[in-house]
Amino acid sequence: MRTIETKVYAYSELSEKAQKVAKNWLCEDVLGNDDDCWNDPAIDTFKQVSAALGIELFDDEKTGRESVHYRLNFMSDDGAFFTGDYSYKAGSVGAIQKFNDGELTRIAKDLYSLQCQFGRELTAEIRVVDVGTIITMGDDEYENLIMKVKGQSTFGKSVTVHSGRSYGNVESALKVLMGDLANWLFEQIREANHYYYSEENTVILMELNGYEFLADGRVFWEGSQ
User: Fold this and answer.
1) Residue 142: which region, alpha, beta or left (left: phi > 0; alpha: psi -120 to 50)?
2) Its pTM surpasses 0.90
3) Residues near 215 by Cβ (< 8 Å), separated by ≥ 6?
4) Which letter does DSSP use for residue 215 in this model?
């Protein structure tokens, strides 16, 4: 019989080199198995924003999941979009201003001014051509979006919204504004991902879970030595 003593360390006690080993373990074996839980706050906030703007997100018939789609592979075709039905929502501008976000407020004011030009009767079906293909909505590339608009005298009439932007017709205006909202959604998802894998969050997770490591950064499990 023999007794083996092993020194274990908290993450903060490791050398810089060992911390890199520990962080790689956390990212690959722990965070990497959490599916997309890191984006829950961003998606939940977007649901609140959508409801405030008058957008009713609906469940996708094929997947049974709410139709918020995104791709984050850090490549040129990254992006996000959503599907649902849009209609006028009283008090939308005030509700959106509570989020304290300049871009959201601009979108809300533009949508409100558009509604006012058409008796607040505009409705739209927001659909995506194919979420399995490119879904990037940046640089005014909205060709993947289908917008079916209903309202009084909407066809062929050019419009100018609150921010001063002008569009050839109301369909184009709504398509761009919904695309702008999708871009905002993608930025929230990208920021959530960045924070989830950040050094700050790594330290928090290490401390909360009480992980211990060997001197070289390998995780230590009780009874493994």
Assistant:
1) alpha
2) no
3) 7, 9, 14, 15, 18
4) T
